[in-house]
Specification:
Length: about 120
Amino acid sequence: MIHIEQKSCTLKVRSKDKAGELYIKNGTLKNAKNSGIEGEEAAVIIISWGSPETEMQDNCQTETKIQTPLMHILLKATQLKDENATSFAHADWLAEAIKLAEGHQPVYKMRESLSY
């Protein structure tokens, strides 16, 4: 919507314990900042966050650090989100394998034994 209406604003984005800013001028993403990172890398990270809360401010005062079209940044953010979800799933599998190696009963077996 911001792109179509050619708005200029700063989006303050929060997700859990993370915070960042997206700077949009005349509907075009010009810069992003997150934990000391600026530009396209920060934009990709911020856009990939799950369940964000946003606050819009009507001003956009920043240098232009992003030249990449927004669609490319959105694709990269989607890829990063998918990679993070996969690594979390692998971490769960690894934790389960460690428990099994230590002689613990698998989680799915424990759930079966608890059913009435």
